[in-house]
Fold this sequence. Notes:
Elements: H1 32-45, H2 57-71, H3 79-98, E1 103-107, H4 114-117, E2 125-130, H5 132-141, E3 150-155, H6 161-174, E4 178-182, H7 191-203, E5 207-215, H8 217-225, H9 227-233, E6 254-261, H10 262-268, E7 293-300
Parallel strand pairs: 1-2, 1-4, 2-3, 4-5
Antiparallel strand pairs: 5-7, 6-7
Helix pairs in contact: 1-2, 1-3, 3-10, 6-7, 8-9
Amino acid sequence: MCNTDRGPSRMVLFSQVPWMDKPKDGIRNVSDTARWVAYFRAMETQRADALFRDPYAERLAGERGAQIAKTMAENNKAEWSWATRTYLFDTFLSRALQDEADLVLNLGAGLDSRPYRMELNANLRWVEVDFAEILAYKEEVLANERPRCQLVRVALDLFDVKGRRALFSALNERHNKIAVVSEGLLLYFTPGEVAALASDLALGKHFQSWIVDLASTIQLILLQRGIGRQLSEAKAGFKFGPPEGADFFKPYGWEPVEVRGMLQTAAELKRAPEEFLALLPEPDPVPPHYPWTGVCLLEKRGR
Length: 303
């Protein structure tokens, strides 16, 4: 890992990444979901009332992203939730940056383009972590673009406990206030794996905030019965929907300071489908049997 003032650090790139563009229908692996999500960001960007603008999303999604969306047509009805999730992550991250975070650590960064599209301090350090193949593809697509901060990409499998602990330790030594982002990541971890990751992050005293998305237990079951079947075939099944909700993170050093439901937020933004409005208002706290997804801002206990 190295730093740069002029653009993203150069990682070892593949001159071609064939599996990212093979003309095969459906989702083949967890990295394919990043193309699908980028497609939805591109669709949102085209709206006159867009919740955000991502001018890079269409290129990142590519033909493959559009192909996946076509084959997953039944699940495309949830486009409103993808846009709302991105909006909420943007909102919480902006707050962390106003709180003077000097490093953003994006775990499972996928094809996220926030370092290029958000208004950022040029001195801000940003580290993206994901599989080498998807980072290489992303770097090729954005090769002629400049990030608005000091961006570094780290190829690392987050299930490599030793590797991630070494990375977290190194970052903790170099920075004073670290904001962690893990959009669309934890759903693929078991509760035990999430607990271990939370504990690893909490070890560093300079890790201050963590933005996560979350599903209730019943929502996890519904997802597993729907889109989850296709993802499980691609070895990308959904696993995390704790009955405790955001309180799951408390024993591992993280306190929920704000929790916002996707449906409630979408309704406030005039984006929620009418057929779902009967589920509102959301109960507080959200019980395991209530179909719910949301975004949570966690802060280190005792910060």
